[in-house]
Design a protein that fits this description.
The chain has two domains: about 40 residues, no CATH class; about 140 residues, Pnp Oxidase, Chain A (Roll), CATH 2.30.110. The two termini are about 30 Å apart. Strands 5-4-8-11-12-7-6 form a seven-stranded antiparallel β-sheet. Strands 3-13-14 form a three-stranded antiparallel β-sheet, with no helix packed on it. It has a two-stranded antiparallel sheet with strand order 1-2. It is of the alpha+beta class. A hairpin with a 2-residue loop joins strand 11 and strand 12. The structure holds flavin mononucleotide. Flavin mononucleotide (FMN) binds next to strand 5 and strand 7.
C-alpha cells in the first residue's frame, strides 16, 4: 500500500545475501522533521549583545557538545534568523539551558520580535560575564562562548563555540520531543 501524502516516507534500505540493495525515495522535509523529532532534546536560549546594551535571544535545540580539549560546543542557526548576522558580527554568545518551568521563555525567544513588556512580565533577566557576554539568568546551566569557526551547511550555519565559562544550578530541564515541550517523567 502506498503511503498517504501526510505520512512520512521513511527511507528503508534492505540488504540480504540474496537481494540487491534497495532504497525507497529520499525522505521529504516533513519525514525528516518527524524522524528528528523523535530525538528528545533540552532547550537552550542563545544570547548575543548586538549593540551596547541591546541583547537578542534565540531559542535553539540544535545544540550539542563537540570536544573536551579544547572545550567546544555547536549550535546550528537558520539563515532566516535575525541571530545569524549578530553571531557573525559579534563572535561571542551565551548559551542558557532552560528549566522545566521555562516554556514561556522558550516560546518568547522562538518569536521574531521581542517585546520588552512581555520580557518584563516573564521576568527575563540577563547578566554579563566578566568578559561582557550576556547570559539568561535563573537557568539550569549557562555557558559563554567565542565563535571558533562557522560552517555554512544547507539552510543553516553551524557555529562552533569555544567555551570560556560554565555555571550550573539546581533544577530539572525543559524538554522538546515530537514538536512539543515536556518535562522528565511527564508523558509528552
Ligand atoms: C524548541 C525550539 C527549538 C529551536 N531550535 C532552533 C535551532 O536550533 N536553530 C534555529 O535556527 N532555530 C531554532 N528554532 C527556531 C527559532 O527559535 C525561531 O525561528 C526564532 O524566531 C529565530 O529568532 P530570530 O529570527 O529572532 O533570531 C527553534 C524553535 C523552537 C520552538
Amino acid at each position: 500500500m502506498s503511503p498517504s501524502p501526510d505520512e512520512p516516507q521513511i527511507q528503508r534500505t534492505v540488504i540480504s545475501s540474496e537481494t540487491a540493495v534497495m532504497t525507497s525515495p529520499a525522505p521529504t522535509p516533513l519525514a525528516f522533521r518527524q524522524a528528528l523529532g523523535q530525538f528528545a532534546t533540552g532547550v537552550t536560549v542563545i544570547t548575543v549583545e548586538y549593540e551596547p546594551g541591546k541583547i537578542h535571544g534565540m531559542t535553539a535545540n540544535a545544540f550539542a557538545s563537540v570536544s573536551l580539549d579544547p572545550l567546544l560546543i555547536l549550535v546550528c542557526v537558520d539563515h532566516r534568523a535575525h541571530m545569524l548576522p549578530y553571531l557573525v558580527e559579534q563572535k561571542r554568545f551565551g548559551v542558557a539551558v532552560l528549566k522545566e518551568h521555562q516554556q514561556a521563555i522558550a516560546e518568547f525567544f522562538a518569536q521574531p520580535g521581542q517585546n520588552e513588556d512581555i520580557e518584563d512580565r516573564l521576568n527575563i533577566r540577563f547578566r554579563h560575564s566578566h568578559s561582557g557576554i550576556p547570559m539568561l539568568e535563573d537557568t539550569l546551566a549557562r555557558l559563554t562562548c567565542r565563535v571558533a569557526a562557522s560552517y555554512v551547511s544547507g539552510d543553516h550555519t553551524i557555529f562552533l563555540g569555544e567555551v570560556g565559562t560554565v555555571e550550573i544550578s539546581e533544577g530539572q530541564p525543559l524538554l522538546f520531543f515530537r514538536g512539543r515541550y515536556g518535562q522528565i517523567g511527564s508523558s509528552i
